[in-house]
Amino acid sequence: MGLGAIGPGLGEGFIGGKTCEAIARQPELQKGLTNNMFIANGMAETTGIYALIISLMLLLS
Predict the structure, then answer these.
(1) Domain 2-60 adopts which CATH fold?
(2) C-alpha pair distances (Å), 36 with each of 16, 32, 42, 44, 51
(3) How does pLDDT run across 14-26, given as a tens digit for each residue?
(4) Which of 14, 29, 31, 33 has the greatest count of CB atoms below 10 A from its CB?
């Protein structure tokens, strides 16, 4: 499970950092950038959820 959480953690941090940089450059686009960030974070988090499900299946089988 630990290895499956590294990728989403790094990806979400990268997405958040780049969103902050973009908002600092163009504050008027904050609403759209924030919405896109949440969608991208949800997509990045799915790999962590898959890792959790697979680890639980292996543990409980």
Answers:
(1) F1FO ATP Synthase (1.20.20)
(2) 10, 6, 10, 12, 24
(3) 999 999 999 999 9
(4) 33
